[in-house]
Write a structure and sequence with these properties.
The protein has 204 residues and is mainly alpha-helical. The chain has 4 helices and 2 strands, in the order H-E-E-H-H-H. A hairpin with a 5-residue loop joins strand 1 (44-48) and strand 2 (54-58). The chain is elongated.
């Protein structure tokens, strides 16, 4: 005969309730013992009956030691949870501050672009104008610096090219034979020299 399913509610009959308590208490103690032996787990079971009688099981020799361990672990969990909540609150505040800063930056950007100036006072407009002047001064200074650096690089390159040009003229003057002047004439020689210089310059 199949066993009927027990409803999960308080047993009204006192005798049946006491019998069920004793049976299930013993079963719970047995399961706790088996779990502690099979899995080498530290287990403590504390049961108070309806009449206030204490039943307990401990896998260790000292129930109090297991209880203290549980209390310490619970305290650490509470501390970790509190720290986590505090950290999350800190992140929320940072997110709000960052959103506010982004909003202010966007507002300033629109004003610098000439947008949203209707609500600005004279002092606000003067402040914006001053900021723009300072920005323009910084841009001009950077532009002048870049131009100066570019000019210095061009001057240095000009010196190198002039030195190379002189060296090529000297080299060509040493290798040319006197009879070439009669064969080609001064004009042809200059053209040849210029061609050689151009070829050398293209290789630089």
């Amino acid at each position: 005969m199949a066993r009927g399913k027990i409803q999960m509610k308080r047993i009204e009959n006192t005798t049946s309730r006491q019998a069920t308590f004793s049976k299930r208490r013993n079963g719970l103690m047995k399961k706790a013992y088996e779990l502690s032996v099979l899995c080498d787990a530290e287990i403590a079971v504390i049961i108070f009956s309806q009449r206030g009688r204490l039943y307990e099981f401990s896998s260790s020799t000292n129930m109090q030691k297991t209880i203290e361990r549980y209390r310490q672990h619970a305290t650490e969990d509470v501390a970790k949870k509190a720290n986590m909540e505090q950290y999350m609150l800190h992140l929320q505040h940072e997110a709000v501050d960052m959103a506010r800063q982004i909003e202010l930056l966007e507002l300033s950007k629109r004003k610098f672009l000439g947008q949203g100036l209707g609500s600005c006072s004279v002092d606000d407009l003067q402040e914006i104008s001053g900021e723009l002047e300072r920005s323009l001064s910084t841009i001009r200074a950077k532009k002048d610096q870049l131009f100066k650096e570019q000019i210095e690089r061009l001057k240095a390159k000009e010196v190198l090219l002039s030195e190379e040009n002189s060296r090529l003229h000297e080299k060509c003057g040493e290798t040319e034979k006197p009879r070439q002047f009669a064969t080609f004439g001064p004009r042809m020689l200059l053209v040849k020299l210029d061609r050689q210089i151009a070829e050398k310059m293209s290789m630089i």
